[in-house]
Amino acid sequence: MAVINEPANREAKLASLGLDEDGLxxxxxxxxNARNNxxxxxxxxxGGQSAYADTTRFLRDFYIPKGAKKDNTKNYCQLICSNGExxxxxxxxxxxxxxxxxxxxxxxARGEAAQDAVESAQIxxxxxxxxxxxxxxxxxxxxxxxGPVVKFELSRPEAIDSAGYVTKWEERILFSPISVDPxxxxxxxxxxxxxxxxxxxxEK
Length: 204
Known about the structure:
Helix content is 27%, strand content 26%. With 204 residues, it is α+β, with helices and mostly antiparallel strands. Strand 3 (78-80) and strand 4 form a beta hairpin. Helix 2 (21-36) runs antiparallel to helix 3 (46-63). The model is unreliable at 186-200 (pLDDT under 50).
């Protein structure tokens, strides 16, 4: 498994994918801003869902004009990188996310669509003399929110088992944690102060 965490090496690797650290970081910030809009009266999963949705949206908004494409096959939302060989999928990660000394996992087991996508990236067909993959190499943009800090990495699984867990990583690109606004306990808190009456007299 290759681990890339030096800035120069990270920049070069991201460039080969048609990505950059600024774009990935801003996507995560947008997602965390959306998470902060969730209140205790939203469904419990809404914060995470909105973070996932807005991170995915910004990645597409930012990179599609640069030659990337989107793919929602089987409702599995991917950003196909401009090189046509790689794809990014947004997911939350466990406590090992961003830690070079540990092996991370997506926070939740990956479903059938993810398993198929990773497997397809390993399968090669021979329709002609040219060797081709059945699908793009899948990279997980994994994030871990810890108060006002987000740890994240862009990592490529080599294999996922039938239970939906990564059994081997091919490459991991690690980033420095970023600061975000702390998650408020309640956004748009109702104002229960007495109403204010304003007497507006029409001019005669």
